[in-house]
Amino acid sequence: MMTNNEEIRFVKGIWQHLADLFFWLAWRKYLHLLKWAFSVIIDNELGLINLTCDGARYCITLMAPTETFSVGVFLVFKEGAKLLNIFVIALGGALGALSRYSLGLWVSTKWSHGFPLGTFIINVTGAFLLGFLNILFIERLTLSPLLRLGIGVGFLGAYTTFSTFSYEAIMLLEGGSLLTAALYTLLTVTVGFAAAALGVGLARIL
User: Fold this and answer.
1) pTM of the entire predicted model
2) Binding region
3) DSSP symbols for 65-89
């Protein structure tokens, strides 16, 4: 007869082996997708996608885009390369979210007053980067639309946070900090606008 602890360890062992088997099977099934992701070559001149499938059992073929539209100021494919768009946006978004989290965490260790300085710095620097990189990538450099998509929609879209700014302003109002809430709102809008304008101007004189 097994004791309760032995039964628990036995059941946990079974579940662990099942989980290992599941992830092993999933890895084998989707290994070709990982190989495909790392075999993508972005043509910086034409903005097209070249794939090297190397005889894989499953090969994803991406057609060149036939039409484009604008999200904000960055170019997006309407037809073709849809899966790669998602991959690039997801990668940029992950990096942007991690950058926002890291910067916000660092600021919180240096600033303990009522003004939401972390979110303010994040949104202002994001506005500057968007203005600067938009002009740099579109007017000054020849860059793949996919990279613009990853940086503009992915990275900067996840890095900046209007929702957190709005929530923090409401919390300040509910807490009775009317002056701080008004100052926070005013500075975020005006300084953010100025930062974007500075980024645009700086990119054009470089």
Assistant:
1) 0.62
2) 157, 160
3) PS-EEEETTEEEESSS-HHHHHHHH
Single out the residue of 33, 18, 42, 23 nearest to residue 149, CA to CA.
Answer: 42
Q: Are 165 and 119 in contact (CB under 8 A)?
A: yes
Domain limits of the chain? Answer: 67-205
* Token output for 70: 């604008």
pLDDT digits (tens, 9 = 90+) for 42-101: 333 334 444 444 444 434 334 444 445 544 444 544 444 566 777 888 888 999 999 999
- In the three-class reduction of DSSP (H, G, I as helix; E, B as strand; rest coil), residue 42 is classed as strand
Does the pLDDT value for residue 121 go beyond 80?
yes
Where is the binding site for Na(+), in residues?
A: 157, 160
End-to-end CA distance of the chain: 78
Q: Output Rg (C-alpha) for the chain, integer angstroms.
A: 24
d(CA 100, CA 164): 11
Q: Which residues pair with 69 in a beta bridge?
A: 76
User: How far is Cα 10 from Cα 133, in angstroms, rounded to an integer?
Assistant: 56
